[in-house]
Specification:
Blueprint lengths: L6 H26 L4 H24 L7 H33 L3 H24 L7
């Protein structure tokens, strides 16, 4: 059985991997520097969202906007969609660490899988719709 992926899916995987490295790397760096895991998590989640918007728009979904109004709408939709997964990621890590007792690094990695899938689907179906620019 041959599995094929589209250019979009390949690029999402590549840029998603870069995002994951920045997310987990930044998280671990802030913890190493003495930050509480909750603070480290929220800082890296917010910074990572900026990186993801730019890479998703330019390199993955390659959408064009006809004017500032469309661009603002796309940014707002991205922020809304990613806010949902930010909350899912943040509270999921807290739940896994404080309630279940899993180490913070493992918790962060586990939640990332669910977040990545949700982000791809929301980006494709909700935020970066090609027909919006027409």
């Amino acid at each position: 059985m041959k599995i094929t992926i589209s250019r979009e899916q390949r690029d999402y995987i590549i840029w998603g991997a870069a995002s994951a490295v920045l997310n987990i790397g930044g998280f671990q760096l802030l913890i190493f520097m003495g930050a509480d895991y909750k603070t480290a998590n929220i800082i890296t989640l917010i910074a990572n969202r900026f990186f993801c918007y730019i890479t998703n728009k330019i390199f993955v979904f390659r959408t064009k906007c006809d004017g500032w109004q469309q661009l603002i709408k796309e940014i707002v939709l991205f922020i809304l969609a990613r806010s949902v997964t930010l909350l899912m990621d943040y509270f999921g890590v807290v739940l896994l660490v404080e309630v279940i007792g899993i180490k913070s690094f493992i918790s962060k990695a586990v939640l990332m899988v669910l977040v990545v899938l949700t982000n791809y689907l929301s980006g494709k179906w909700f935020v970066f719709k090609k027909d919006r620019a027409k």
